[in-house]
Amino acid sequence: MKIVFSPKYTAKLRGHVFRPDKFAAALDLLLAEKVFSREDIVRPAPPSRADLELAHTRGWVRRNLAFKFTPADSARAEMKISRSVALAHLMNAGGTIKAAELALETGLGLNCGGGSHHAFAGHGEGFCLLNDIAVAVKKLLKAGRICRALIIDLDAHQGNGTAAIFRGDRRVFTFSMHNAEIYPEKKEKSSLDIPLRPGCGDTVYLALLKKALPRIMDRFRPELAVYAAGADVYRGDALGGLKLSIGGIKKRDSFVFSECRRRAVPAAVVLGGGYAKKFPDTVRIHANTLRAAAAGAR
Ligand SMILES: [Zn+2]
């Protein structure tokens, strides 16, 4: 079982609520627990300009590739966009492309990173610069390798950038379940949004997911599912506010994987947000997701 990761994901972003080192920490945990071995790690290539322009404007791509950002760009992204940060976002996009390709080849592709669902075509926001999910899906559509893709966005925040990029594109179904009361203040329109009350907890969350996802999959019949498995739905998260338990999140993940598997829909997994007050909790949740994905595929 392959797992996509680059050490360049670990941007220098000291003191920020988003800790880019969580991805490396999750991978280390999985290596220590022998879920993966070092030989399983696939290093992604950075995406090409043409790949990025499938989902982003030429101007925004130019600035990302030249590492030329304004203070306003950093303010909107809510982080200082250093060269290291911009490079990390490029590599994460390359990683999600690779994971989506692996999904089509083997049934499952894992990016130990990714999930920058707040990046819009022409700007970054909410700790996201480039929409890795949109770039990967657009690339496979363009290459004719798939006709329909489903994006299952279970991060605690709405996948606003993804929804905006695919608005009106009938080849892509965007599904987002998220806390209605947190960022982004202005929600975009996904193919299906399920807004949740703060503190909704395991029971309500899992019931809504179990009702919605099978219907979507049966009606839309995707040829690829990209699963954004945000860890910020966790009850110990500083931002997400949905209050799921670690056990509840495990159930969420295994439900998504089993629904994909029983329909033989290839799944690409990206990790997304995770801001637990106790850092090791975020790492554990991300590792659990990848472990469950791998276990189901073996
Ligand atoms: Zn989030």
Describe the structure.
It is a single chain. This protein is α/β, with parallel strands linked by helices and 298 residues long. It has a single domain (3-297), classed as 3-Layer(aba) Sandwich (Arginase, Chain A), CATH 3.40.800. 44% of the residues lie in helices and 11% in strands. The protein has ten helices and eight strands. It has helices at residues 21-32, 49-53, 58-66, 71-77, 83-106, 132-142, 160-166, 201-220, 246-262, 279-297; strands spanning 3-4, 41-42, 108-110, 149-153, 172-179, 192-196, 224-228, 267-270. The strands form two sheets. A six-stranded parallel β-sheet has the order 3-8-7-4-5-6, sandwiched between helices. A two-stranded parallel sheet has the order 1-2. Strand 7 (224-228), helix 9 (246-262) and strand 8 form a beta-alpha-beta unit. Helix 1 (21-32) packs across helix 10, helix 5 packs across helix 6 (132-142) and helix 8 packs parallel to helix 9 (246-262). The longest helix is centred in the first third of the chain and has 24 residues, at 83-106. The protein is globular and about 45 Å long. The protein starts with a strand and ends with a helix. The mean pLDDT is 97. The chain binds zinc ion. Zinc ion (ZN) is lined by residues 155-157, 230, 232, 272-273.
